[in-house]
């Protein structure tokens, strides 16, 4: 946390990081490989759509 010179910068980073992390965290060890790959592909497609438009 010493990298952030202002508390507001840390809060902004934490907010963005948590939403991105939650979007991509699929708990790999709890699902079968084919299910994991399908959900991962769907998450990447949604992320690309959000970033493009």
Structural notes for this entry:
The chain is mostly helical. It has a domain at 29-53. The protein contains 2 helices and no strands. The protein is elongated and about 45 Å long. The termini are far apart. This is Transposase.
Short description:
With 53 residues, the chain is mainly alpha-helical.
Topology:
Layout: H1 7-24, H2 33-52
Secondary-structure element pattern, one letter each: HH
- Percent range of helical residues: over 70%
- What is the CA-CA span between the terminal residues? 32 Å
The whole-number mean of residue pLDDT values reads: 78
- Assess the beta-strand content as a share of residues: under 5%
Given as residue ranges, the uncertain stretches (5+ residues, pLDDT < 50) are: none
Number of E-state strands: 0
What is the number of helical segments per DSSP (H or I, 4+ residues)?
2
Any key phrases for this structure?
single chain; 53 residues; mainly alpha; 2 helices; elongated
């Amino acid at each position: 946390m010493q990298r952030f010179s202002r508390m507001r910068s840390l809060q902004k980073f934490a907010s963005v990081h948590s939403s991105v992390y939650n979007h991509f965290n699929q708990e790999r060890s709890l699902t079968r490989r084919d299910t994991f790959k399908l959900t991962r592909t769907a998450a990447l497609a949604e992320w690309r759509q959000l970033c493009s438009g």
